[in-house]
């Protein structure tokens, strides 16, 4: 059995395996450690980065109320308080990242979780036969909360873009 690597301090660590002392686990991707021998993968638990002044971080922490549609270890989905469609949800990663422009390779798993959540919302809704997924990046594009999030819009025809 392989020990789980801890990446909570610096985002990257090396740790000897209890199975075989010549194996080293390396992790640069939140949520996973990779055995250099390519035959073992171990999930690890990593505290999410938060920003104390971010409204979405406060919602995730439960300090501000919101209508929660879904909640996983990686993302939370809430109803938008200013809906632009009959179904308007916000898919919000629990890790604080300002925008798509601030992503790095270690966030790939997290962004995959966002996309799979959009699919799950589609599958669970009778009114979301077609949907739009939007992420505004920067003030000029309409971003007003600087914590990456995706608008899931459905329930009407959306020809205007």
How do you describe this structure in short?
By secondary structure, the chain is an alpha+beta fold.
Walkthrough of the structure:
By secondary structure, this protein is an alpha+beta fold. The protein has 2 domains: 1-47, no CATH class; 55-154, HIT family, subunit A (2-Layer Sandwich). The chain contains 2 helices and 9 strands. The strands form 2 sheets. A 5-stranded antiparallel sheet has the order 5-6-7-9-8, with helices on one face. The protein has a 4-stranded antiparallel sheet with strand order 1-2-3-4, with no helix packed on it. Strand 6 and strand 7 (87-93) form a beta hairpin. The chain is globular.
Mean pLDDT: 77
Major beta sheet summary: 5 strands, antiparallel
CATH class type of the largest domain: Alpha Beta
* Assigned CATH architecture of the largest domain: 2-Layer Sandwich
How would you write the strand order of the largest sheet?
A: 5-6-7-9-8
Shape: globular
| Name of the CATH homologous superfamily of the largest domain | HIT-like
The CATH topology label of the largest domain is: HIT family, subunit A
Primary descriptors:
four-stranded antiparallel sheet; globular; alpha+beta; HIT family, subunit A; 9 strands; five-stranded antiparallel sheet; 161 residues; 25% strand; disordered N terminus
